[in-house]
Write the structure tokens for this entry.
Amino acid sequence: MKTTLTLNQHIYLDQKNHPQGTGVFSEILSEIALVGKIISREVNKAGIAEIYGLTGDVNTSGDEVQKLDQFAQNTFVNILGYSGNLCAMASEEEEGLIPISAGKDLGKYVLIFDPLDGSSNIDANVSIGSIFSLYKRVTEAGPGTLADLLQPGYKQAAAGYIVYGASTMFVYTAGLGVYGFTLDPSIGEFVLTHKNIKLPAVNKNYSVNERDYYSWPEGVKTYIEDLKKEGKVAARYIGSLVADIHRTLLYGGIFMYPATNKKPEGKLRLLYEGNAMAMLMTQAGGAASNGQKNILEIEPTELHQRTPLYIGNQNEVKKIKQLLQ
Ligand code: AHM
Ligand code: MG
């Protein structure tokens, strides 16, 4: 039998490489993994549970909120807000900063998350995911502030996602490579299945919603037309960012959500979606850009800021940037 390394063991072993560390960072990652297991359980019974269905509410980004979104949101806040490791949080599902409840201990990190991305796919049983970014606070003490949350992506201490697919996977980076763990439901543990993930150097798939073709920038149209003329790269678009990025990470290729005439800032959110994916992709040897600038270098000015996103193999991101100049 092969040796099984669980996520918690991996985090613990990694912690030993940082003897000056306090263990808080490891604790937060374990807590996020627990959140992932709880959401995974609910997602898996979405089709039969009463929780299935719409609430009719609309979130700050104008999307319909489903009950599972709320469940995922509450799970993140309940588990991470009470352990004394964070000083503030922000979520795609909430307009402002999420404070740590009065009377609770404050920690030196902030967590930014999208509790359940791609939730419009739930009814069709398509993979969805949770996305997170962890930063060290920049203010000295007291409750966390917007300044702690509005940091550029290169300052992320860790980033990752949990994909609820054919199996549930926890994929993360703490700046030393990308590691993927698959949930073994029989033991309730994430076990290491994807060690030091590196993006294959081949452009296997391109992934974009072509509905917007006629309102894309000319450079993006040219890029896609060239790929089609060549006829070698397959089109794959799930419409669920975590699943689309997961495939891109494992198979190689390019994912994009371009700017359009109507939405020059694109659809995806820099803080909740772009930064985490950019850190993972960069750690796996790829790149992420808004068409001009490295995603990780964008200085955010507001929590729900959007950004065009071109992410995947370095060469492809470079080509798009050149075509957009
Ligand atoms: P959400 O955060 O409201 O779920 O929206 C984000 C999702 C991403 O998962 C996906 O990449 C994108 O929206 C798909 O958008 P579209 O349907 O316009 O292609
Ligand atoms: Mg989202």
